[in-house]
């Protein structure tokens, strides 16, 4: 059946899915295959909490300035410091790359379209959300609870979705290092999910930028 679905695959390429979620550095040939699935995704400014601001091109998430005029809140505006992508992701292979801050804690990943982010924790895959977090410069895995790791928060974070195989993987995109993979049986379309912890002091740089 796999041969019928992917008639042009070589024997080596058939191993790429399993190699893409293996611990350690991803082989170059596999990395190029992952990155080839890169998608153009933008954030939904209407979804951003009042303390957050999406850039005009939809690619970056900033802290709102106290001097900014108050926004008109929409039905899709979150009550927590959250922002999501403007559209659901295609039900295929998708790769995304983000520049991420180390100045504040953040949580990034994928969630189902029906996930109620205002009333559910963002560390519960059973509820329809699959994320990792950064706290104090270290990566945490949100697999039902926050699980600490030894991984340093990367400058660029890679996110890879294989909807058909039920794979969600996270990488240090600079080192091409596999951080963690969730395996799930998707029954809904997915959105990109981003949450940050903002304080009183204004942070001028972007928290997250899609590149």
Can you walk through the features of this model?
By secondary structure, the protein is mainly β. The protein has a single domain, classed as SPRY domain (Jelly Rolls). The chain starts with a helix and ends with a strand. It is globular. It is built from three helices and 14 strands. It has an eight-stranded antiparallel β-sheet, with no helix packed on it. Strands 4-13-6-7-8-9 form a six-stranded antiparallel β-sheet, with no helix packed on it. Strand 2 and strand 3 form a beta hairpin. It has helices at 2-5, 16-20, 28-35; strands spanning 24-25, 52-54, 60-63, 82-84, 93-100, 106-112, 129-135, 138-142, 146-152, 156-162, 167-172, 177-183, 190-196, 208-210.
